[in-house]
Automatic annotation (TrEMBL):
Protein name: Thiosulfate dehydrogenase [quinone] large subunit
TM annotation in the entry: 21-38, 58-79, 91-113, 133-152
Membrane topology, record value: Multi-pass membrane protein
Signal peptide region: none
GO CC term, one of those recorded: membrane
Main location: membrane
Compartments where found: Membrane
Keywords linked to the UniProt accession: Membrane, Transmembrane, Transmembrane helix
Keyword Membrane listed: yes
Source organism, top-level taxon: Archaea
Keyword Transmembrane: yes
Length: 174
């Protein structure tokens, strides 16, 4: 039974990928992932504003990781960008996911963050699979399934004149 955008509750309750349970699940994953990042960003903003000094400090201490001298250079030379960018980025990514607006763009940015966290943390005490990789997979899921179309604002944004005039914008939505 296929999912119906006009009336998602009209279909029989089923587990198939086009059914309403899948739509609810994808929307739930999107909102929870969004809350996770939104909470992390807002907490940093409340505690230290746009001066999140832990980020550059952490990067400066990453001399023995898989990334080598790159994070140390970033910590020394990009500190102002990181101090403001991490809390703002996490907050905006989370907000976009929670309301379902520009989800693919938000998830791409979140995937970038999680890739840096996954490689940067590089402890891998339990192998390559850790919480950072799971976060990366969640963001990948948002991109692949166009999670903003499921009970999110992207379903509305896709019908605007702007998106109809520039159809490539659909790649940012969903």
């Amino acid at each position: 039974m296929a999912y119906s955008e006009t009336n998602p509750l009209a279909a029989d309750f089923g587990f198939d990928i086009g059914g309403p349970l899948a739509a609810y699940w994808i929307a739930l994953l999107r909102v929870i992932t969004g809350w996770w990042f939104f909470h992390a960003g807002v907490t940093k903003l409340i505690e230290s504003g746009l001066n999140f000094t832990y980020g550059p400090m952490y990067l400066k201490g990453m001399t023995g990781t898989a990334l080598g001298p790159i994070p140390v250079w970033m910590g020394n030379n990009l500190a102002p960008v990181i101090e403001a960018g991490v809390p703002l980025g996490e907050t905006l990514i989370g907000l976009g996911l929670m309301v379902g607006a520009m989800v693919r763009l938000a998830a791409l940015a979140g995937g970038f963050f999680m890739t840096l966290f996954w490689v940067g943390n590089a402890g891998f005490g339990h192998g390559l699979v850790n919480g950072d990789l799971m976060g990366l997979l969640l963001f990948g899921t948002m991109i692949v399934f166009g999670a903003g179309r499921y009970y999110g604002l992207d379903a509305i944004l896709e019908k605007t004149r702007l998106v109809e005039a520039y159809p490539k914008l659909r790649y940012l939505l969903g």
